[in-house]
């Protein structure tokens, strides 16, 4: 970029490091275990042929079906281009650049910081504890300028649930002062842990959801914000006029049908079975220090030499997600749950680094 053009860019964007998605990082392989996607394609047929017309801003059938699925009213649901857009909408609607800040707890999902920095909103961080839980006393000491607290549960990339009592303490401390956003992108793998039912008690609670994971529709880019009607109406002021294309709304509606929900739960059961059968096996490999339990469709492995393992697998076409730059995750790689065959391929590839006596 020329110096003249560079000077036209907002300084915070000029200095911004973009979120490094799995696709952006690239790689060439046959076994993709780096993006927390469902490992095989799910077929849908387009039924809406009105592509000559603009779509509804909030497709009624999609909203009503998701509301029924989540146990809410339709006016408590907003649909967007993935939960990523919802993260940004909240910052745009509620945070004053140069005045407010958002708080998040690394290691966690990287888009919270990128979205805030893009809009010139300051970030505050409080690391998770050594056992990957919220450091509540430290969080409560940082809330003076915080307008939004982002909590991810189950947390990406650690794969574990945040303690419910800790989340309640944060909600209690922020009542009337800030929003608390609980990102439940992976909640279908542990539905009993959802905090959606808390919304009546905590009107400043917002829950984010997606069809990218358990619904096997990462390519669709369809997510949801669940909140009080007043918050939904505020977000509708800043969302794009036509956030969902007609084909996206068509497929999302099918995925949220009764048959679609049955199929989703079958996929969840399958991935949970694969996860729970392979984690103990990986834990026995000599190159592995620890294979962590998980409540999601991915898990972490701490290796004795993660760089050698990551590079060696990469060269064999087995692509994992490197987490070593994150706090508390030294020598950790994240493994998305693939098919039985893909996980077996990974296991056999790791045996080349030795096996325990």
Keywords:
single chain, 357 residues, alpha/beta, seven-stranded mixed beta sheet, four-stranded antiparallel beta sheet, 15% strand, globular
Structural notes for this entry:
- The protein starts with a helix and ends in a 7-residue tail after the last helix.
- It contains 13 helices and 13 strands.
- The strands form three sheets. It has a seven-stranded mixed beta sheet, with helices on both faces. Strands 9-10-13-12 form a four-stranded antiparallel beta sheet.
- With 357 residues, it is of the alpha/beta class.
Gist of the model:
Helices cover 36% and strands 15% of the residues.
Please estimate the helix content: 25-40%
So what's the overall shape?
globular
The total count of strands amounts to: 13
What is the end-to-end distance? 56 Å
- Note the run of SSEs as H and E: HHHEHEHEHEHEHEEEHHHEEHEEEH
Please state the CA-atom Rg, rounded to the nearest Å: 21 Å
Spans where pLDDT lies below 50 across 5 or more residues: none
Proportion of residues in extended strands: 15-25%
Number of helices: 13
Main structural class: alpha/beta
For this entry, what is the oligomeric state of its chains? single chain
Overall pLDDT metric: 94
What can be said about the biggest beta sheet? 7 strands, mixed
Q: Reading side by side through the largest sheet, how are the strands ordered? A: 2-8-7-6-5-3-4
């Amino acid at each position: 970029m020329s110096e003249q053009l560079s000077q036209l860019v907002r300084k915070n964007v000029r200095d911004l490091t973009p979120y490094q998605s799995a696709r952006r990082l690239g790689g060439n392989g046959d076994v993709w275990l780096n993006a927390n996607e469902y490992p095989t394609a799910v077929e849908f047929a387009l039924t809406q042929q009105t592509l000559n017309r603009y779509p509804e801003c909030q497709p009624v059938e999609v909203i009503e079906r998701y509301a029924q699925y989540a146990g809410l009213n339709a006016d408590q649901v907003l649909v967007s281009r993935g939960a990523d857009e919802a993260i940004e909408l909240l910052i745009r609607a509620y945070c004053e650049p140069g005045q407010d800040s958002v708080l998040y707890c690394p290691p966690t999902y990287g888009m919270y910081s990128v979205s805030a920095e893009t809009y010139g909103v300051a970030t505050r961080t409080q690391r998770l504890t050594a056992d990957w839980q919220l450091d509540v006393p430290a969080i409560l000491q940082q809330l003076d300028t915080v307008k939004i607290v982002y909590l991810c549960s189950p947390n990406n990339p650690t794969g574990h649930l945040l303690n419910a009592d800790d989340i309640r303490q944060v909600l209690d401390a922020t009542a009337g002062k800030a929003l608390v956003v609980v990102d439940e992108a992976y909640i279908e793998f542990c539905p009993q842990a959802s905090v959606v039912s808390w919304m009546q008690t905590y009107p400043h609670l917002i829950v984010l959801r997606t069809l990218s994971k358990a619904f096997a529709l990462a390519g669709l880019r369809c997510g949801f914000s669940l909140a009080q009607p007043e918050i939904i109406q505020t977000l509708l002021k800043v969302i794009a006029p036509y956030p969902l294309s007609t084909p996206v709304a068509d497929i999302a509606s099918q995925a949220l049908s009764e048959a679609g929900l049955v199929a989703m739960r079958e996929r969840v059961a399958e991935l949970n079975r694969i996860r729970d059968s392979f984690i103990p096996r990986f834990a026995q490999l000599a190159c592995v220090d620890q294979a962590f339990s998980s409540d999601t469709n991915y898990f972490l492995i701490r290796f004795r030499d993660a760089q050698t393992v990551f590079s060696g697998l990469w060269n064999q076409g087995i692509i994992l997600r490197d987490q070593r730059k994150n706090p508390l995750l030294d020598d950790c790689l994240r493994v998305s749950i693939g098919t039985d065959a893909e996980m077996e391929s990974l296991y056999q590839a790791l045996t080349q680094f030795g096996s325990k006596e």
